[in-house]
Design a protein that fits this description.
- The structure is a single chain.
- By secondary structure, the chain is α/β, with parallel strands linked by helices.
- It is about 40% helix and about 20% strand.
- It is built from eight helices and twelve strands.
- The longest helix has 17 residues.
- The protein starts with a strand and ends with a strand.
Length: about 220
């Protein structure tokens, strides 16, 4: 029976997650703080750690860093309401096995857990490359584009913007949505920064990879 550690400070949600996992046949331990979670993770073997990022003492990022430094093979699934793409990507870059956003659908969450438990058994790791377009891939570990075997560097904002478009591939992303998620702007100050950065990405990708939806925003076309 797989053993899962849940690190979540909100009591009702911690109880819900624990019940879901136990009903699915897993052995479950739980911790309400980052320090308690880290102590539990270092003190016993777990097949998976479900970790929130927003905790009352240590941040989830710090728990992730210390745990992976001590146990590089630990499997950690981030379960968090953090909406910033850059922060989500950062924890994946640092070694988290997966990221599930709150609020979550129970069936999807359990499917992700099953997948990561299976990865733990087989030794598989998440693929470091994500297809962007013809001949172009995003190396999520190095925050670089790989275009026909040639590596192209990306700034932090370019990477966060492309990651957002990839997550919503085929869907229209409004300028307001991109400003809020990539630049953390609550309202549009009338800047053209989104258009400028889309132009920079287009210069590095094929021109037809990112489509302009007039008066709305942008869409990353299906590969």
């Amino acid at each position: 029976m797989a053993h899962i550690l849940v690190v979540e400070d909100e009591p009702n949600l911690r109880m819900l997650i624990t019940r879901l996992l136990r009903d699915a046949g897993y052995q479950v331990s739980a911790a309400a703080t980052g320090s308690a979670g880290l102590q539990a993770a270092l003190g016993a073997e777990h097949d998976l750690v479900v970790l929130d990022l927003i905790l009352p003492d240590l941040s989830g990022e710090e728990v992730l860093r210390v745990l992976l430094a001590a146990r590089p093979d630990a499997r950690i699934l981030i379960l968090s309401s953090v909406s910033e793409v850059g922060r989500r990507v950062a924890v994946l870059d640092r070694g988290a096995a997966d990221f599930v956003a709150k609020p979550f659908v129970n069936a999807e969450f359990l499917a992700r857990v099953r997948l990561r438990i299976r990865d733990q058994v087989t030794g598989a790791r998440p693929a470091p490359y994500t297809a962007v377009g013809a001949g172009a891939h995003l190396d999520v570990h190095r925050s670089e584009l790989v275009i026909d075997g040639r590596r192209v560097s990306l700034s932090h904002r370019e990477f966060a913007l492309l990651a957002h478009l990839l997550r919503r591939r085929g869907e229209v992303c409004t300028r307001q949505e991109l400003l809020a998620d990539v630049w953390r702007m609550a309202s549009d100050p009338g800047t053209n920064v989104v258009d400028v950065y889309v132009g920079r990405l287009r210069a590095k990708l094929a021109n037809d990879t990112i489509e302009t939806v007039r008066n709305v925003g942008y869409r990353l076309l299906a590969s």
